[in-house]
Each structure stands twice: as C-alpha cells, then as structure tokens.
Amino acid sequence: MLRGAIPAGRIAGIRISVHWSLFPTLALLASLLSLSILPVHFAGRPTLLYWIIGTVTAAGFILTLVAHEFAHSLVARRHGVSVDRVTLWLLGGMSELREEPPDPKADLHIALAGPITSLLIGVVSLVVAFSLEQFTGPLVTAALLWLGTANLIVAIFNLLPGAPLDGGRVLRAVLWHRSGDRLAAATSAARSGRVLGLVLILLGGAQAIVFGSGGLWLMLLGWFLRSAANVELMTASARHRLGNLHVADAMTPTPVAAAAGDTVEEFLASAASSSHYRIFPVVDPDVHPVGVITLSDLARTTPAARSRTTIGSLACPLPDADIVTGDTLLADVARAVLLRPGLDLIAVVDGEQHLTGIVTATDLVRGCDRTALGLPLRYHPTVPGSGSSGGPD
Which pLDDT belongs to residue 336? Predict the structure, then answer.
C-alpha cells in the first residue's frame, strides 16, 4: 500500500487510486514515443502530431494496466475475495485484496486473469493495427503496434515464476494444490521472486555497463521485485508463526484514542501527555475509528496554532481494510501491518463499530516471537517489588 496515492473514484464499486509516481512513467512513455520511436520511423511529420499520438498512446497503455488489474479484482470478487482498491504507480498497478484466496483454484484464476487480459489486449491491438492500416495512417498504426507489443510484454513478464508477479501467484497455486500447504507454497514462490529479482538486477547492471543507461530500468524492476518478495517472505513467516491466533489475542485493549474534534492543545494536555505511545487511533464522537495520528504529526504544528488546529484535520484517514473485529485471524492482518511498520495500525472494533483495541507492528512481532518461544501470547508484568520489572514496550 503506497503512500501518496490520490483517490480517483470508483469503477464497479472498486476504489481507484493513483500514486504520484505514475505521472513520471506517463511522461517518460509519451516522450519516448513522441521524440524517439515515431519520428525515427516516420520522419517529416509535424512535431505536435508526434506529441498528440505519443501522449494518447501512453495514456492508452496506462488504461490497459487498469484493465489488467481490474481483471484480477473482478475474478477475486467472483471467488468471494474482497477487494480494497486498485492503485496505479511507477511500475504499473496493484490490486489490494483484503484476504487470501480460499483455495488453490481461486488463487490460480485470480493470478491468471491479469496476464490473460493483457494478452487479449495485445492481440486485439495488433489485429486492429494490421486490419485498419490503410484507413488509420502509418502513425496511428505504429502506435497500435507499440500498444499491442507492450501489452504482450506485460503479459509475458508478469508470468515469470516469482512472487509478487502473477507468475509467482501461479507457482504458489500449483504448489499449494500439490502439497496442500499454502504457507509453504507462498514461501517457495517468494524465494523464487527473490532469485528472479537478483537476476534482473544483474542483467540490468550488465546492460548498463555495456550499453550505457539502458539497464537502469531493468535494475529498478529487479530491485522492486526482490524487495516485494522479501515482504512476501516476511508475511509468510508471520502467518506460519501466528497460526490460528486471533486479533483479540494480541491487540492492545482500550487504547488511548484522540477525538477528531479536539484541538492539538487539548489532546497534548490530556491523554498524550501521560502515554508512552507515539501513534494513536482517531475516533469520531461515537467512538468509531476514523483515522490515525502520530506524535510527529502533532510536532509539525506550531505552538501558536495548536489551540485552533483539530486532530481530525491532521489525521491520516483509516481505510476500511484497516478496521477489523477481534475474531479476525491475526495472520490475515499481518501483511497490512508489516508493510508499514511503525507508521500505521489496525483498529479493532466490536459489533457496533466502537473502538476496542489496536494492533501495531510491535504487537505483531511480539506475538510472533512469543509464539515461536512457546510462551503465552499475553504476558503479565511482575508485581512491583518482586525483584524484576516488566511493562509494555
């Protein structure tokens, strides 16, 4: 889940977000088409025409990435898997699923939906380009050929066998089906992703040495893939350790919460002054969690402005996916917490959506460690004066 993503509406009930890093990608593709590819092959046309066709083609490619991700999301919903949102960013897009697929078959179908969509778009674009060449002219034909080829490359690249690529999901589904062990399958797919990322980095480095800067993009892809695979490994490890534990087993109950309507000055003078925490849930008047705020957020407010600045105006909104009930499996929230260690929290609510607790990365890591050591998840500090001390971290 990327910081800096801008909400861009909904399609078929699924939220769309656009990360700022998508715009450099759009500009890079439009420049590549308008300044290099089209002028080299079809010289003598007006510069404005190159830019119009190049920009429209680049925007069309972004839309095909949306179609790729929506294919994942729509198939996931058909299999009963909730979709939080689709985010477009520097290296394409990502579908954020709220839970894991229920079985290997669903996992396989969800994984294949995106590449199949890109493959179909690629084939259709190429067929249209060749069929309508005499009507569209050489520039439009070239743009369609590029768009079709680009989608075929996206489909093939995504089928490489390493998580978090779609091919890694396919590998996970196959291994899961064969062994019946989803966690072991996820671990193997993530390790394959790490190896694949390293290979791409090495290939990009070699290309950069031999041909100049051409390999930097490949190195960036490899770095992203390896980093994401490490997160997959960490999440799989957490799931293995946490087993069938529930959120209520590890949460911090009755946490210190900030009222959205309070001013910074009021909050600092009350709960925050006596709390050892650095991150707090923000609640509305009905004690429903609506956001998250940290001491760093408060510190950025000048002393003179604290008496008129409300907590709600500074808080980061809390996505629906970050609000769970106590009977939710702890392993199911592991990915969301581990992706943003120290920055966010999961709010725990009761049946009436009232805040009852929070789960942070610290809670999750503590749960993993204590479970691995065979200790009870809940610990009780020694009574003062007994010779030892304990308390929350």
Answer: 62
Structure tokens at 91: 């290296």
Nearest residue to 148 via CA among 116, 122, 124: 122
Question: Does this model's pTM top 0.90?
Answer: no
Q: What is the DSSP string of 284-312?
A: -TT--EEEEEEHHHHHTS-GGGTTT-BHH
Residue 100 falls in the annotated catalytic set: no
Sheet with 323-325, edge to edge strand ranges:
252-253, 355-359, 346-349, 323-325
Percentage of residues in the chain with pLDDT exceeding 90?
Answer: 48
**Is the N-terminal amide bond of 384 cis, ω within 30° of 0?**
no
Please state, as a whole number, how many other Cβ atoms lie within 10 Å of the Cβ of residue 32: 14
User: Which residue reads 């290309």 in tokens?
Assistant: 207
| Beta carbons of 10 and 66 less than 8 angstroms apart | no
Task: State the chain's mean pLDDT as an integer.
Answer: 85
Residue 270 structure tokens: 């009350």
Identify which has the larger pLDDT, 88 or 73.
Answer: 73
80: DSSP letter: T
Cβ 249 vs Cβ 330: under 8 Å: yes
Catalytic residue among 69, 99, 100, 266: 69
CA distances from 112 to 58, 118, 160, 190, 200 (A): 24, 10, 12, 17, 22
* Cα first-last separation, the chain: 26
- Tell me how far apart the alpha carbons of residues 249 and 376 are, in angstroms, rounded to a whole number: 10
